[in-house]
Specification:
Elements (H helix, E strand, L loop, with lengths): L7 H8 L33 E4 L6 E4 L20 H12 L11 E6 L5 H8 L7 E6 L2 H4 L8 E4 L2 E8 L4 E8 L2 H8 L9 E4 L3 H7 L14 H9 L5 H5 L8 H14 L10 H7 L5 H12 L3 H12 L11 H14 L11 H31 L3 H20 L23 H6 L12 H12 L14
Parallel strand pairs: 2-5, 3-4, 5-8
Antiparallel strand pairs: 1-2, 1-4, 6-7
Helix pairs in contact: 7-9, 7-10, 10-11, 11-12, 11-17, 12-14, 12-15, 13-14
Length: 471
């Protein structure tokens, strides 16, 4: 996070253009070397402070750190974008005399994708007279949502973007300056329903001469595996030659890396021709390794856990990612592996099998006692109910895709349930999850599930030797 809160008084200047609707020329310039030309018509919102309220003075702090607090937690990217920076700033603002919540004059609210829907709704709720709302947000507030009563935006001009490192084969978040197009979006967050102001914490020179006009196209900064697979499916010739004709063509190294990945997975042969597996994977609009996992899971009789693992790989972990709950969630995860007897995770040092176990537990609780029992299970295991619901929906979508390419059957007619009553056909979820289905006959055998997992994720597989001491 690049917003420098030099001291509480300066913080109050940047955020509290509220207190007297003074012309806040005293924003802290986030620029390292240039004078404070704070381009007030402002640009972006890496951290925009929107202090809102019935009074004409509100401000939203949108800390634009595209996604996720830590590059190393890449599976949680979309969900924890900039959360560490947001919580740090929240603590610093809340710890100041002027903004302390105990004074009852300000409401401090974080906004990022891992905030629960209930807490997100607080962002849009009006505050009582005399109380200002300060929202600290990631770039989710740049275009995804609009807080209507925002009057002031403080923009640091910073952003984290997903970038793919071809040499290291790693996708991570890289911090940099926003593009001018994005800065205009941030500026537009101010004054949606009345005149507003945007304070940009960088110089006019940087805005006009250093920042790019537009964000780099995705084609030149993300993995190209799925795109290359579609090129081959459509019979468009050699991947390298076809993509070279794009307006902003990707690098040769990036294309070669994607083709090598497809060959490693088995989707392309040595002549760059599409294989039968490749044709199946091209019909599954997900990461090719997750798709291969589903195909193998259905073929080897452990589709139920394979669906859960593929959904988890494509979305995020169901364990709570809130800043103050991570340690407790990690302890719960470790405890499941150590004590979850009778489950796939029992005695296994495998995150994927732990996720399968907690999903199965949540599903059983939901079936047994409805939403209340499911919520209690989530609280006990430090799980996100919203994430588990999303995983459930993704599992069903994946099952439909597998049915469309012939790996499983759909429930085509009415099915008699327990007690001999014919109450209509089963839902896709019930049909696919049923343990008696041929595609689930080995679903409770850890050895088979781990074999499918390793085959699907190869060569991204590692083994830990627990017999050797670790430094």
């Amino acid at each position: 996070m690049r917003m420098r809160m030099r001291d509480e008084d300066e913080e109050e200047d940047a955020t509290s253009a509220e207190d007297e609707d003074e012309d806040e020329d005293e924003d802290e310039d986030e620029d390292e070397d240039e004078d404070e030309d704070a381009t007030s018509a402002g640009e972006d919102e890496d951290e925009d402070e929107d202090e809102d309220e019935d009074e004409d003075e509100d401000a939203e702090d949108d800390e634009e750190e595209d996604e996720e607090e830590d590059e190393e937690e890449d599976e949680e990217e979309d969900e924890t974008s900039g959360i560490g920076e947001i919580m740090t700033l929240l603590e610093r603002i809340g710890g100041s005399h002027h903004f302390a919540p105990s004074r009852g004059r300000h409401v401090l609210l974080p906004l990022h994708s891992s905030v629960s829907p209930a807490d997100q709704r607080l962002i849009f709720a009006p505050t009582r007279h005399g109380v200002r709302k300060i929202v600290l947000a990631t770039n989710i507030a740049e275009t995804s949502i609009t807080v209507e009563d925002v009057v002031y935006v403080v923009d640091t001009g910073r952003v984290k973007e997903q970038r793919y490192d071809v040499r290291r084969h790693v996708t991570g978040l890289v911090e940099g300056w926003v593009a001018r197009a994005s800065s205009r979006q941030r500026r537009g967050r101010a004054g949606r329903t009345r005149p507003g102001h945007c304070f940009a914490l960088y110089t006019r020179h940087r805005a006009e001469q250093v920042m790019a006009a537009h964000q780099q196209p995705e084609m030149v900064r993300v993995p190209l595996v799925e795109l290359c697979l579609q090129v081959k499916l459509l019979g468009l010739g050699a991947v390298q030659g076809f993509l070279a004709r794009a307006i902003d063509p990707p690098s040769t190294d990036a294309v070669q890396d994607a083709v090598a990945t497809l060959e490693e997975v088995g989707a392309l042969d040595a002549e760059e021709a599409l294989t039968p597996l490749g044709r199946h994977l091209a019909a599954l609009p997900i990461d090719v390794r997750a798709g291969k996992l589903l195909v193998l899971g259905a073929s080897l009789g452990c589709l139920d856990p394979a669906l859960t693992i593929a959904a988890y790989m494509s979305y995020k972990s169901p364990f709570a990612s809130a800043h103050d709950m991570r340690d407790a969630a990690e302890r719960a995860r470790v405890a499941l592996a150590a004590t979850g007897s009778g489950t796939l995770a029992a005695g296994q040092q495998c995150d994927q099998l732990v996720v399968v176990t907690v999903y199965d537990g949540w599903r059983a609780a939901r079936k047994r006692g409805g939403r209340r029992a499911a919520a209690a299970y989530c609280k006990q295991q430090f799980l996100s109910a919203e994430t588990l619901e999303m995983l459930r929906e993704m599992r069903e979508q994946f099952a439909v895709l597998l049915a469309e390419i012939g790996f499983i059957q759909r429930p085509a007619r009415a099915v008699e349930r327990s007690a001999g009553q014919n109450v209509g056909r089963l839902s896709m979820e019930e049909w696919v999850d049923a343990p008696e289905q041929p595609w689930n006959k080995h679903a409770l055998q850890p050895a088979v599930v781990k074999a499918v997992l390793c085959a699907g994720l190869y060569a991204n597989v590692a083994m830990m030797d627990t017999t050797q001491p670790h430094s």
